[in-house]
């Protein structure tokens, strides 16, 4: 599996882990252990889970947890007034937080790549409308955090 595929799998696993932590209240160390030993790269109930870049999975999950309040504020500022992040579906919240973390802290990854990857993750869980909302919010965040990447090229 190519490194890009492993990173895509790490993003999907990070979103699933963030969701699971929110719903179950499990801690980060327990979640790391569970995903690394049970989910990532294994077959579960007939579904084969792809091998993921573990260090990248750790980085996303740890980064979101360490910077969750500032990330949430950025997302809240981007969402439509009267529709705060707390009203967004928990899986969508996990996608936005992970994407927000990468846009804010992982300058080594182009913003357009981050947006596309998380829109693809959204497509695994939701329909076209929800994936479009993820695209719009992350695009707005990217333009705020990385305006230089969106300047017209001459």
TrEMBL record:
<keyword id="KW-0889">Transcription antitermination</keyword>
<dbReference type="InterPro" id="IPR006027">
    <property type="entry name" value="NusB_RsmB_TIM44"/>
</dbReference>
<dbReference type="Pfam" id="PF01029">
    <property type="entry name" value="NusB"/>
</dbReference>
<dbReference type="GO" id="GO:0005829">
    <property type="term" value="C:cytosol"/>
</dbReference>
<dbReference type="InterPro" id="IPR035926">
    <property type="entry name" value="NusB-like_sf"/>
</dbReference>
<keyword id="KW-0805">Transcription regulation</keyword>
<protein>
    <recommendedName>
        <fullName>Transcription antitermination protein NusB</fullName>
    </recommendedName>
</protein>
<comment type="function">
    <text>Involved in transcription antitermination. Required for transcription of ribosomal RNA (rRNA) genes. Binds specifically to the boxA antiterminator sequence of the ribosomal RNA (rrn) operons.</text>
</comment>
<dbReference type="InterPro" id="IPR011605">
    <property type="entry name" value="NusB_fam"/>
</dbReference>
<dbReference type="GO" id="GO:0003723">
    <property type="term" value="F:RNA binding"/>
</dbReference>
<comment type="similarity">
    <text>Belongs to the NusB family.</text>
</comment>
<keyword id="KW-0804">Transcription</keyword>
<keyword id="KW-0694">RNA-binding</keyword>
<feature type="domain" description="NusB/RsmB/TIM44">
    <location>
        <begin position="9"/>
        <end position="143"/>
    </location>
</feature>
<dbReference type="GO" id="GO:0031564">
    <property type="term" value="P:transcription antitermination"/>
</dbReference>
<dbReference type="GO" id="GO:0006353">
    <property type="term" value="P:DNA-templated transcription termination"/>
</dbReference>
């Amino acid at each position: 599996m190519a490194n890009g595929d492993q990173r895509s799998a790490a993003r999907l696993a990070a979103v699933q882990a963030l969701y699971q932590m929110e719903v179950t209240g499990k801690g980060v160390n327990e979640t790391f252990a569970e995903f690394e030993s049970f989910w990532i790269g294994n077959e579960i109930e007939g579904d084969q889970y792809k091998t993921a870049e573990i260090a990248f999975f750790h980085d996303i999950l740890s980064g979101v947890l360490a910077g969750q309040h500032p990330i949430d504020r950025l997302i809240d500022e981007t969402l439509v007034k009267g529709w705060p992040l707390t009203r967004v579906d928990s899986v969508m919240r996990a996608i936005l937080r992970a994407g927000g973390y990468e846009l804010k802290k992982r300058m080594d990854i182009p913003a357009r790549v981050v947006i596309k990857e998380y829109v693809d993750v959204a497509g695994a869980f939701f329909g076209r409308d929800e994936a479009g909302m993820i695209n719009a919010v992350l695009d707005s965040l990217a333009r705020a955090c990385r305006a230089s990447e969106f300047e017209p090229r001459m």
